[in-house]
Amino acid sequence: MQIFKEKALLTAYLKTIWDKNCAIGFVPTMGALHQGHLSLIKNSLDENDYNVVSIFVNPTQFNNIQDLEKYPRDLDADLEKIRTVCPNCIVFAPTVNDIYEGNTNSKSFNYDGIENEMEGKHRPGHFDGVGTIVKKLFEIIKPTNAYFGEKDFQQLQIVKKLVVKNNLKVNIVGCPIFREANGLAMSSRNERLSKKDREEAALIYKILLTTQEKFASRSAKEVGDWVKKTLEKHESITLEYFEIADETTLKTCIKRSKNKEYRAFIAVFIDNIRLIDNISLN
Ligand code: AMP
Prior knowledge:
Order of helices and strands: EHEHEHHEHHHEHEHHHEEE
Largest sheet: 6 strands, parallel
Helix content: 40-55%
Bound molecules: adenosine monophosphate
Distance between the termini: 41 Å
Structural class: alpha/beta
CATH class of the largest domain: Alpha Beta
Number of domains: 2
Strand order of the largest sheet: 1-4-3-2-5-6
Number of strands: 9
CATH topology of the largest domain: Rossmann fold
Shape: globular
Number of helices: 11
CATH architecture of the largest domain: 3-Layer(aba) Sandwich
């Protein structure tokens, strides 16, 4: 495994690979790796000659300073996990200064309105931070394929828009959500949940599965009302939003159309820890 902490050293190494015209797969992460991240790396391994994994907790995408400070960081443990699935991986774990060069600010992006829905509404500036770091990383690594989880479905759509709007030459691959045995979507934030809260959090996926069933015969509003009522009975879980939205525009489904694909999205707090999940309704 090759580990780089500075972009200058990484690009000097990658130059020999770019010249060979090989396929480079790229998996951007913020570390605290789990099976979900490793599943992205496995997809990359299957489809590319070289594989780059980045580990970088990007400050510009956090709108809550405490969330940034509490974000779990353990580079050695992450490297060990990567080694188990990808012993030849190229790992990029830069410092904030190496990436932002003293200017830790986001650029402003237009994603045709996708940025104003759900996560965008509740985390102001988040997608400008995501666009800023993803564009920087794409420009440094110049990957052929880049892998993103459907766990952050809105982010996946944002990255696809970023690529089209900026004419970036990279193919974006969406990967399915990897779940714990009880159905809870794997997340680095799950580590901060108590054992009891982790069990309670399994309800999120159960609600999404029932949403899938109910949406076959009921309107988006009826399903949304049922979700709100169900969660009101669970004191430990606070609903931030539940939306049934068009998969492409991410606009709320008000009147269902046969030609559109829909997805249900949910964000909750459990003991001040924010969890998101989603499910396809088609
Ligand atoms: P993060 O480290 O949270 O920024 O996530 C890095 C990448 O891993 C993103 O593309 C996420 O969508 C993806 N990811 C995170 N959790 C999961 C999961 N449970 N299943 C699949 N992909 C995931």
